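[INFO] parsing input record for Molybdenum ABC transporter, periplasmic molybdenum-binding protein ModA
[DEBUG] input buffer:
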Amino acid sequence: MTPRGVGALLAGCLLVLGTTAAACSVAGPQQVVVSAAASLTEAFDELERTYEDDNPDVDIVLNLGGSQILAGQIVDGAPADLFASANPQSVRLVADAGLGQGDPIVLATNRLVIVVPAGNPQGVASLGDLVELDVVLGAEEVPVGAYAQEALDAAGVTLQPVSLEPDTRAVVSRVVQGDADAAIAYATDVVALDAVEGIELPADVQPEITYQVLLLTDGAGGFLEFLASTEAQQILRRFGFSGP
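[DEBUG] output buffer:
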């Protein structure tokens, strides 16, 4: 081979090597898409940071919203590696579509409270006190709305809500903004908010609120294992959730 040919060959090899190296250098961490109930927002933000600190090769991407909306997105083909739902029904919808890997696991539990402005200016003490007030609930198809209706039925109370919201964060925000006198939402929703407080419900009207997690792809296996760890459970408790 002539010197000119050798030079051309070396240049070509260097170009290939350079291209390969560049490709390797721009390849980022593995993305893991986690679709999670809106009520898990702050807790999952912290769980994401903790997991990524220990696993810098993984980028957890959170898709937050109402559980029923997320389930519909997943069934319709939206990318997701893990689904964390505020109710078993939404998980079942995804599993029945053949999209889950293995059985769902119970992540945490929650409870309902009556959400009122800080200081409880209306003196609300029970669900019956809400009848004459402007109250906001979650829509019937939303987990927090279905749970609220279950509690109201158990208490024998009928309300005429001023609005029905698409997720629990929207429910609480109406009270925070002064658009409603009260709402029924999760206890975890008021933990970090100074503008509102939660009035506990008696045990005999408190529904069983269970959060389930369903693995959708192998890519989220490590994060699922982390969620079951003592460290992750301690984080969830710090944000007001109870253990499974």
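[INFO] The longest strand covers residues 30-37.
[INFO] shutting down worker
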